Amino acid sequence: MLKAFYNVCALVVTMFALAPASASPELNCKTLTVSGNPEYPPLLWRESADDGYLIGALPALLREIVEPMGLEVVVRDLGSWARVQHVASLGEIDMVAGAFYTSERIRYMDYLLPPITHLPTVVWVPRGGEFVYRHWPDLLEKRGSTLINNSFGQNFDRYAEENLRIEGVRTIEQSFQMALADRVNYVLYELLQGQVKLEKLGLADDFVALETPISREGLFFTFAKQSPCNTVELRERIAASLSKLVDAGRPDQLTQEFTRVYTGQD
Asked: In this predicted structure, what is the pLDDT of residue 266?
């Protein structure tokens, strides 16, 4: 399914290249209002509950791309990841910094190629509560938790909806605390984000990531379809700069830098 999505996106990008250029983005759009999952360190998180903004590797990468174009980036904290997706669907923000592909989201967001990175999602369990996990059916008799409206790839999402018991909560800290209290057996969360989040919470020794990932998905910048800043020319320019930075390994460099910031190692 994801391979087909990449093929479709490549065709769309080719069509964009043949289309007449729209007006210069500098004339039409001075500021990009952006949001994303605030539970996504070191890629994206709220540094303070009071200032209303998010920081992380994704905002830093986006600024490196668009500030040379004369555009300002404002990365707002809109609350839960579910609310961010709702606001994007209404066109009340211009971009989402970091989203996996789903057929639902593609109805209201345009995905920019290439993916920023690929992230494995794993089964996190309290230490001592490990169980054999090789493939999705091994979760059938278990209870899990993750963020509300989180996606781990369209195929897994469909399987989980039809077969698994997974409780959605507003913060991933809630999921981990539920696991420690034996209210759920496991937490679904990306490997990278889980490692840094648990380190920050002082729970790194209390959880284990089971070896086999449930999925490994590409992470994308997206434009809200209804955003007035969403033009063919701006998408092409961002995609071209993003491709160069991805090829140069810049997302990995920023991820390492912001891991140190988030965990207080700087």
From this structure: 61
- SS3 labels along 22-51: CCCHHHHCCEEEEECCCEECCCEEECCCCC
For residue 165, give the H/E element and its range.
strand 165-169
Mean pLDDT of 117-129: 97
- Its sign, for the CA torsion 98, 49, 82, 188, is positive
Same domain for 99 and 229?
Answer: yes
Residues 206 and 225 in one domain: no
DSSP string computed for 95-150: EEEEE---TTGGGTEEEPSSPSEEEEEEEEEETT-----SSGGGGTT-EEEEETT-
Q: Which of 101, 121, 119, 103 is nearest to 111 (CA)?
A: 101
Tally of domains in the chain: 2
> What pTM was computed for the model?
0.84
User: Is the predicted pLDDT of residue 175 greater than 80, yes or no?
Assistant: yes
**In which domain, by residue range, is 180 found?**
119-215
Q: Is the pLDDT of residue 69 over 80?
A: yes
Q: What's the Cα-to-Cα distance from 77 to each of 53, 54, 66, rounded to whole Å?
A: 5, 6, 20
